[in-house]
Write a structure and sequence with these properties.
- It is a single chain.
- The protein is α/β, with parallel strands linked by helices.
- The chain has a single domain, classed as Vaccinia Virus protein VP39 (Rossmann fold), CATH 3.40.50.150.
- The chain contains 6 helices and 7 strands.
- The longest helix is centred in the N-terminal third of the chain and has 14 residues.
C-alpha cells in the first residue's frame, strides 16, 4: 500500500480529520461528484454540504451519485459559480474543497478562473471554524491553468501566519503539469 497519496486522495485524507457528523461543509466545484459524495458521507444525517458548479452536466453527475448512495438529502446542489458562496453559505464551515480546472469529458474551454476562484476561496476561509481546513487541488495543464495556479499560490503564500497554516503538496517527478494540493488550516487560538 502506498503511503504517498495522489493529491486528490491526500486532500480527502486531510479533510477527513476535521469533518464530523453534523458539520457544514462546501464543495466549491462539484464536477463529477466525488468530493461531494465524500463530504456527504462525513457530515452524516444532521450535516450539510453546499455543492457548487456552473455546468448542468456536473450537477446531473453529482445528483446521480448522491441518489445512488442515498445521500442526496444531505446536500444542497447549487448551479452557480463558486464566487457566489457568500450568497448561500451563512454559517461557519468545517471544510471546503476546491478541485480546479475543467470537468473531464466536457468542453475543455469551460474552466475555473482566478477571478472567481479567489473570491470563493476568500469567503470559505472567512467562514472556516478554527481547526477547519480548505483544500485546493490545482490543475495547470489547460489554457489559463498556469495563471490560476500562480495566483492561488501567491494568495495562499500571503495568508496571515497567525491565522492560517498553509501546506503545499506536489509530485515533483510527474510529467505534464501534475496536480498540486494546497491545504489551508485555520489556526485554533489557545487562551
Amino acid at each position: 500500500m502506498a503511503v504517498i497519496k495522489k493529491p486528490l486522495l491526500m486532500a480527502q485524507n486531510i479533510i477527513s480529520g476535521c469533518v464530523f457528523p453534523g458539520d457544514v461543509v462546501v464543495d466549491a466545484t462539484a464536477g463529477n461528484g466525488y468530493d461531494t459524495l465524500f463530504l456527504a458521507g462525513l457530515v452524516g444525517n444532521q450535516g450539510k454540504v453546499y455543492s457548487f458548479d456552473i455546468q448542468d452536466e456536473a450537477i446531473a453527475r453529482t445528483t446521480d451519485k448522491l441518489h445512488k448512495e442515498g445521500l442526496l438529502s444531505r446536500v444542497r446542489l447549487i448551479r452557480s459559480g463558486h464566487e457566489r458562496v457568500a450568497d448561500y453559505v451563512k454559517e461557519k464551515i468545517s471544510a471546503a474543497m476546491f478541485n480546479l480546472g475543467y470537468l473531464p469529458g466536457t468542453d475543455r474551454q469551460v474552466v475555473t478562473r482566478p477571478e472567481t476562484t479567489l473570491p470563493a476561496l476568500e469567503t470559505c476561509l472567512e467562514r472556516l471554524k478554527p481547526g477547519g481546513i480548505a483544500t485546493v487541488v490545482l490543475y495547470s495543464g489547460h489554457p489559463g491553468g498556469m495563471e490560476e495556479k500562480e495566483r492561488i499560490l501567491h494568495y495562499c503564500s500571503r495568508l496571515r501566519r497567525d491565522t492560517f497554516d498553509v501546506l503545499l503538496y506536489e509530485m515533483m517527478n510527474w510529467p505534464n503539469h501534475p496536480p498540486v494540493l494546497v491545504a489551508i488550516e485555520k489556526r485554533v487560538h489557545e487562551e
